[in-house]
Design brief:
Helix content of chain A: 10-25%
CATH class of the largest domain in chain A: Alpha Beta
Shape of chain B: globular
CATH topology of chain B: Jelly Rolls
Helix content of chain B: 25-40%
CATH superfamily of chain B: Jelly Rolls
Distance between the termini of chain A: 43 Å
Radius of gyration of chain B: 16 Å
Largest sheet of chain A: 7 strands, mixed
CATH superfamily of the largest domain in chain A: Nucleotide-binding domain of ferredoxin-NADP reductase (FNR) module
Oligomer: heterodimer
Strand order of the largest sheet of chain B: 1-8-3-6
Radius of gyration of chain A: 18 Å
CATH architecture of chain B: Sandwich
Strand content of chain A: 25-35%
Number of strands of chain A: 16
Chain lengths: 283, 155
């Protein structure tokens, strides 16, 4: 199988969608599903954290992070929450159905920069999907990193993404996994509370740890504060920004955040670069 | 349990981290060792709040009961955390239920005893108040985040 030597480089005509066949559609939660696509014999190399523009023919296009294993470019995996017309149309696809794909676009989680460091992956809600490729990478190169910690928060136990995989990861001896939900009945035996509370419950070296954070922007603001309080410096924090991306390649400016085009210079940013704009309502 | 052991256990707990030795010695006189089996209530809503708990081991659920919906867990707490601040403020009644989810081992601190010592020694009282204020602020921030329903269905 041919592989793209530089998955961060986009194709020659970035506005041209590539038709792809749906192999499988998996229901994850009441409103979230996973599409497993067949990219054909050339495969679909990408870097963890990158996204694609998915085109539901005749309805429109949406930016969706890639949530599969970067070590398996023979399938393309996207986990999607059905919240608008395009995502609802994507949910109606059946195996054998076709959609358009442009990408991969954007920056990646700094998995190379994190070599030799402890890594804290902190996420909430559907934010686990864009971080799953990074987790796959970290786990497949486990010996090259220090401690690996996953902190994950969801609304309720029914909203937890990839529960089977969470159990598998939790069962590993080389990874610490803490899961919490915002609300639960007493049948839930796990933790209840906000994801930021988990930071104090896990062991890592804040002087050398790097943190990858993805979730709703408000959650990320509080996540950053909790990790800073624990001692991680701003240059070791990375966040994945979500903005109204349209073209995906920095032409249209819809996704502008201060001086940055999130689609092109993001979605993964070093937090230090975003400090003046993070949480500012004017941008 | 020996006084020395209480002093060591309290001193090792994150809530009392860096507390002056004299203040720690003051607290020890109000401490006792407690254990709760999984499922056992530690305290019940509207009952007198006479103690707070320094959790050493296990998980506690803070719950409230909603008629027609059953018990709802508001927050869980684990070793390294303190449970309860209603002992510090009038009317000294628990606002929620607390139930042991697993076997829980804790140190119980007598609220009346501690309030008396806080009144007598302003520096000690200020130190205790600062630590509980931080717990209360963290809880308030967490509540604000929970109210935002961050992971809701809004696009």
């Amino acid at each position: 199988m041919a592989t793209n030597p530089d998955p961060l480089r986009t194709s020659a005509d970035p506005m041209q969608p590539r038709p792809m066949v749906v192999r499988q559609l998996l229901k994850e939660t009441a409103d979230t599903f996973t599409l497993i696509l067949d990219p054909g014999p050339e495969g679909f190399p990408f870097a963890p954290g990158q996204f694609n523009m998915l085109y539901a023919f005749g309805v429109g296009e949406v930016p969706i992070s890639i949530s599969g294993d970067p070590g398996r470019p023979e399938v393309l995996v996207h986990t999607i929450r059905a919240v608008g017309a395009v995502t609802q149309a994507l949910r109606k696809l059946k195996p054998g159905g076709v959609l358009g794909v442009r990408g991969p676009y954007g920056s990646a989680w700094p998995v190379d920069q994190a070599l030799g460091h402890d890594v804290v992956v902190m996420t909430g809600g559907i934010g686990l999907a864009p971080l799953r490729p990074a987790l796959y990478h970290l786990l497949s190169h486990r010996g090259q990193y220090g401690k690996l910690v996953l902190l994950y928060g969801a609304r309720t136990p029914h909203d937890l993404l990839y529960p089977k995989q969470l159990r598998e990861w939790r069962g590993r001896f080389d990874m610490e996994v803490e899961v919490t939900v915002d609300r639960a009945t007493t049948e839930w035996q796990g933790a209840v509370g906000v994801v930021t509370k988990l930071v104090d419950r896990v062991g890592f070296d804040p002087t050398s740890a790097m943190a990858f954070i993805c979730g709703p922007e408000v959650m990320m603001r509080f996540a950053v504060m909790s990790l800073q309080k624990r001692g991680i410096d701003d240059d070791s924090l990375f966040v994945s920004m979500e903005r109204n991306m349209k073209c995906g390649v920095g032409f249209c400016g819809h996704c502008q955040c201060g001086p940055f085009f999130v689609c092109k210079e993001g979605p993964v940013f070093p937090y230090g670069k975003l400090i003046p704009f993070f949480g500012m309502r004017e941008v | 349990m020996a006084i020395e052991t209480f002093e060591r256990l309290l001193g090792e707990h994150p809530f009392f981290k860096d507390l002056e030795a004299s203040h720690l010695a003051t607290i020890v006189g109000c401490a006792s060792n407690v254990k709760f089996e999984a499922g056992e209530f530690i305290f019940r809503e509207r009952q007198p709040a006479e103690r707070f708990y320094v959790i050493r081991h296990g998980q506690v659920a803070v719950e409230t009961f909603l008629p027609g919906r059953g018990a709802i867990t508001i927050e869980t707490m684990r070793d390294g955390e303190v449970l309860g601040w209603s002992w510090l403020f009038a009317p000294f009644k628990w606002h929620f239920d607390a139930r042991a989810v697993t076997l829980v081992r804790a140190l119980a601190l007598d609220g009346t005893c501690l309030r008396g010592k806080c009144e007598k020694d302003a520096a000690f009282g200020y130190e205790i108040m600062k630590r509980f204020a931080e717990v209360a602020i963290r809880r308030m921030e967490a509540t604000q985040l929970q109210l935002l329903d961050l992971y809701g269905n809004q696009p």
